[in-house]
Amino acid sequence: MNIVVTGSIAYDYLMSFPGRFVEHLLPDQLHHISVSFLVDEMRRQRGGCAANIAYTLALLGERPRLMGTVGQDFGAYRSWLEAQGVDTSLTHDELDLFTASFFVNTDQDGNQIASFYTGAMTRARNLSFHDPRIGPVDLVVISPNDPEAMVKYAAECQALGLPYLYDPSQQIIRLSGDDLRAGLEGCALLVVNQYEFEMLHEKTGLSAEEIRAAPQQACVITLGPEGAHIWADGELHAIPPVPPTRLDEPTGVGDAFRAGLIKGLALGLDWGIAGRMGALAATYVLELPGPQSHRYTWDQFVARFRTQFDSFAFTTAFSAPLR
Ligand SMILES: Nc1ncnc2c1ncn2[C@@H]1O[C@H](COP(=O)(O)OP(=O)(O)OP(=O)(O)O)[C@@H](O)[C@H]1O
Ligand SMILES: [Mg+2]
């Protein structure tokens, strides 16, 4: 399937402070804070919603095209994504800026101080689906990005008749009710978590029923450890979660769920199976730190799927030629 994935492409800088922030914040001096936390550990992880979704799609055997703006520090990330099977030819280098970066420092109590530098991502609004290099597309993913870019891509996809999966998630806060309604009303698929679904309802003024009925194909609501609900053709498909063998941290579970779901749709499988593929793809991410640390072959994915959902329907759905 020809899939174009738009959204954030970022580095995550994760630091741990071996103390407690509260001991260094003086309540009577909060009007002129000047504190420096000496951290003893830092990891830099590849992240960003679009890159995470594209990575898992590539693991599942697709060749997604990643579309976004990246900075002068993207070289190693680009080579790595290409080596995993992601086509990065639609990413645009903004050499005077750095790639979007999320900096988070976590103390021993689990308190966090974070900053998100948008960097090259602010220029995503300069990219366009009218770019002749894009050609025919089966599905566009509009995931969290520069808010103006999200509004523009949704309008362009509608004008060009390109089906898109609308995933406004973290950026719901930054989009107006009108922008969200426009994105929602033209989409093929909506995928949000329960909290985001409630925010959509509040900001657009649409009822829950109206939101569920808006996408042309399906409205998918992920429910964390409770799995997901897929509303399609007026029917509810309840998707059970896949229990993890070990729990690490959840960054990127939602992104992996979307990739698994899309792979199921690319194979022409029904909602129940595609949703379960999303749930399994998500669980692999829960079991390891970071959104792009998991790795499996298609055969390993199918084998685990069969073990988890051992029923005739799912076994036959994955007969050999389906790749
Ligand atoms: N503890 C868990 N156990 C099993 N599956 C889980 C768990 N948490 C999440 N999942 C799976 O991941 C999917 C997406 O999770 P969730 O609804 O938390 O997304 P999210 O809030 O968008 O996550 P994030 O934005 O942090 O990536 C769920 O539908 C479920 O299949
Ligand atoms: Mg999410």
Give me some keywords for this one:
alpha/beta; UDP-N-acetylmuramoyl-L-alanine:D-glutamate ligase; binds adenosine-5'-triphosphate; binds magnesium ion; 323 residues; 10 helices; four-stranded mixed sheet; nine-stranded mixed sheet; single chain
Describe the structure.
By secondary structure, the protein is of the alpha/beta class. Strand 9 (164-166), helix 4 and strand 10 (189-193) form a beta-alpha-beta unit. The protein has a single domain, classed as Ribokinase (UDP-N-acetylmuramoyl-L-alanine:D-glutamate ligase, 3-Layer(aba) Sandwich). The protein is globular. The protein has helices at residues 49-59, 75-84, 147-160, 177-185, 194-204, 208-213, 253-266, 271-286, 298-308, 312-317, and strands at 3-6, 10-16, 41-47, 65-71, 87-94, 100-106, 112-117, 139-142, 164-166, 189-193, 218-222, 228-232, 235-239. Bound molecules: adenosine-5'-triphosphate and magnesium ion (MG).
